[in-house]
């Protein structure tokens, strides 16, 4: 990464382009395609046309995934990159030729580098998430994002963050309640 910082903008652009192409080629060798959001991962596994659900053996565990046809070697099998919520993860067979696997992430704050740990990794620092509206978020997440945006704005203007404001308000209330105490030399951290 230090070498990357020393590159000119043109060299960075070229390196990024080469890295994306290398990743694309590596991902193309996998027996599946996958996409992700911060909350879930979708894996599409092609199977022979005419496959029926009862022909499949699909196991989704907290830290493992395997897909195969009964009596044949697994199409994919291994340790998942990160933990999944087994009860919220599902699989379906589409058009008797594609197994759609939906994995619900336990940690909804991280991008996955790969699906199975032994498969090639992608550079998660280059992921550009889809734009979303604050209204799309649940209440708790929305509040957290709004607080982060406010605090970031305050820092840029050299003003105190919301947490610093709360501390200052608490100190002021304490000072008002105890006028007999001298706070002139107090250092607040």
Describe the SSE topology.
Blueprint: H1 2-6, H2 9-28, E1 33-36, E2 40-46, E3 56-60, E4 64-69, E5 76-79, E6 90-94, E7 98-104, H3 139-156, H4 162-177
Antiparallel strand pairs: 1-2, 2-7, 3-4, 4-5, 6-7
Mean pLDDT: 87
- Total of DSSP H or I helical runs spanning 4+ residues: 4
Instruction: Summarize the helix and strand pattern as letters.
Output: HHEEEEEEEHH
CATH topology of the largest domain: Immunoglobulin-like
| Overall 3D shape | elongated
Rg over alpha carbons: 25 Å
Termini Cα gap: 34 Å
**Helix content percent band:** 25-40%
Largest sheet: 4 strands, antiparallel
Q: What is the tally of beta strands?
A: 7
Integer count of domains = 2
The top level CATH class name of the largest domain: Mainly Beta
Function: Required for nuclear movement. May interact between microtubules and nuclei and/or may be involved in the generation of force used to move nuclei during interphase.
Main location: cytoplasm
Keywords: Cytoplasm
InterPro entries: CS_dom (IPR007052), HSP20-like_chaperone (IPR008978), NudC_fam (IPR037898)
Describe the structure.
This protein has about 190 residues and is of the alpha+beta class. It has 2 domains: about 30-125, Sandwich (Immunoglobulin-like); about 140-175, no CATH class. The chain is about 30% helix and about 20% strand. The chain contains 4 helices and 7 strands; from the N terminus they run ααβββββββαα. The protein has helices spanning about 1-5, 10-30, 140-155, 160-175; strands at about 35, 40-45, 55-60, 65-70, 75-80, 90-95, 100-105. The strands form 2 sheets. Strands 1-2-7-6 form a 4-stranded antiparallel sheet, with no helix packed on it. A 3-stranded antiparallel sheet has the order 3-4-5, with no helix packed on it. The longest helix is centred in the N-terminal third of the chain and has 20 residues, at about 10-30. It is elongated. The relative contact order is 0.11.
């Amino acid at each position: 990464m230090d070498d990357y910082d020393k590159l000119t903008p043109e060299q960075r652009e070229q390196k990024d382009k080469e890295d994306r192409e290398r990743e694309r080629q590596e991902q193309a060798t996998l027996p599946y395609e996958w996409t992700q959001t911060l909350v879930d991962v979708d894996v599409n596994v092609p199977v022979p046309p005419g496959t029926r659900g009862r022909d499949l053996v699909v196991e989704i565990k907290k830290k493992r995934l395997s897909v195969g046809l009964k009596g044949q070697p697994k199409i994919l099998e291994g340790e998942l990159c990160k933990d999944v919520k087994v009860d919220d993860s599902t699989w379906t067979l589409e058009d008797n030729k594609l197994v759609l696997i939906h994995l619900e992430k336990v940690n909804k704050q991280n991008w996955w580098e790969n699906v199975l740990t032994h498969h090639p990794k992608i550079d998660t620092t280059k992921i550009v998430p889809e734009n979303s509206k604050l209204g799309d978020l649940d209440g708790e997440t929305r509040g957290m994002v709004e607080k982060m945006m406010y605090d970031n704005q305050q820092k840029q203007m050299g003003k105190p963050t919301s947490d610093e404001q709360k501390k200052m308000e608490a100190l002021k209330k304490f000072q008002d309640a105890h006028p007999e105490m001298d706070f002139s030399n107090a250092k607040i951290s």
